[in-house]
Design brief:
mainly alpha, 12 helices, single chain, globular
Length: about 350
């Protein structure tokens, strides 16, 4: 297969996994999300280890692993900071809308870095700039249409609360019920404030997502490296930052963090899906460039997430919302098509 074909296939897999990676944990209580993110990031790092082992080099009777790049860890740390807001965003405005907004900010940040060479990235040339510009503008319009959709919690999805206990509580005091509120601070917010907080955090989160590839890409462009060679370094940065956030959280909570055992396995599955998607993102960046990969992979997951919201979680209801949803789908599919064609030489 040509590099473009490989890149588009990788982008498709990334969209599917990114759009689905929060689904396993959707019906489980995750509290403020710090512990959940830690579990997710451990799973991400495990995938990085597996990939690093799989890519070891055997030559002349010697086994050598892929070189470790400390600077690439910065990209993982930036992503982790943005991702720490994800659970709060989903609780505030839902999976589909949250992913649409952070996808828009992510798209613009990553695309601009690739197109204009911001933040240490070399600028990229494409065959038909006007088609790429039009596609990016349409993608942003489509995401804005998604922002008009009002989501609601499904009554059929019941929050799991029987496991709401401190994992670090005294194991000998088995009959003691921890004194803690059944509602997180997000659930206590009025609906209007939740929407404002959710949209604001989504935009900030997307900005961090949009620059998370810059550190490894800077090195790749300097040494003409391969994207997958930097995955383990990137994922190590994710795990270290997540562990730091977890340690700070435990300190602030007086060593009594809110831990939800029922969310551990779903959180690990969520991490595995995300890690697969991120590996494919590295491949797409290498084969397509930021100018193509970011618009494609930033908008595609929103489509997948909204399908989950409609078909499974029933977050989106009402004629008006479905009109917005259908319009957003049509606009973004058109935008993705234009972006994909913008680098074809024979148009």
């Amino acid at each position: 297969m040509s590099s473009d074909t490989t890149g588009f296939i990788a982008a498709g897999i990334a969209c599917l996994c990114f759009g689905s990676n929060f689904v396993p944990v959707k019906k489980y209580e995750t509290g403020d999300g710090i512990f959940f993110q830690w579990v997710l990031c451990i799973a991400v790092w495990v995938v990085g280890c597996i990939l690093n082992i799989a890519r070891t080099v055997y030559s002349d009777g010697l086994i050598s692993s892929i070189e470790f790049y400390p600077f690439a860890m910065l990209g993982g740390a930036l992503w982790c900071i943005g991702n720490a807001m994800a659970v709060t965003i989903i609780k505030c405005i839902g999976l589909g809308l949250g992913m649409a907004i952070w996808g828009c900010t992510n798209l613009l940040m990553g695309w601009a870095c690739g197109k204009y060479g911001f933040l240490g990235i070399q600028s990229e040339n494409i065959a038909h700039p006007w088609l790429n510009y039009a596609g990016v503008i349409l993608a942003v319009v489509g995401v804005c249409v998604f922002c008009l959709i009002k989501t609601e919690s499904s009554p059929e999805i019941k929050t799991v609360r029987e496991d709401e206990r401190y994992l670090l509580s005294d194991p000998y005091r088995v009959n003691e019920t921890p004194q803690k509120s059944n509602e997180s601070f997000v659930e206590k917010m009025p609906p209007s404030l939740k929407r404002i907080v959710g949209i604001l955090l989504s935009a900030i989160s997307g900005a961090f997502y949009g620059v998370n590839f810059n550190p490894p890409t800077y090195i790749i462009q300097k040494i003409d490296g391969k994207g997958l060679d930097f995955v383990f370094s990137h994922f190590t940065g994710i795990l270290l930052m997540s562990t730091l956030l977890m340690a700070i959280y435990c300190f602030v909570k007086g060593n009594k963090p809110d831990v939800y055992p029922n969310a551990i396995l779903p959180g690990m599955l969520s991490g595995f899906l995300w890690a697969i998607a991120q590996c494919c993102y590295f491949v797409a960046n290498q084969d397509l460039g930021f100018v193509l990969s970011f618009p494609l992979i930033s908008t595609g997951p929103g489509l997948i997430a909204n399908l989950w919201g409609v078909l499974v979680f029933r977050e989106i209801r009402g004629t008006q919302n479905f009109i917005f949803l259908g319009s957003g789908f049509a606009i973004i599919i058109t935008a993705v098509t234009m972006i994909a064609l913008s680098n074809k030489q024979d148009l």
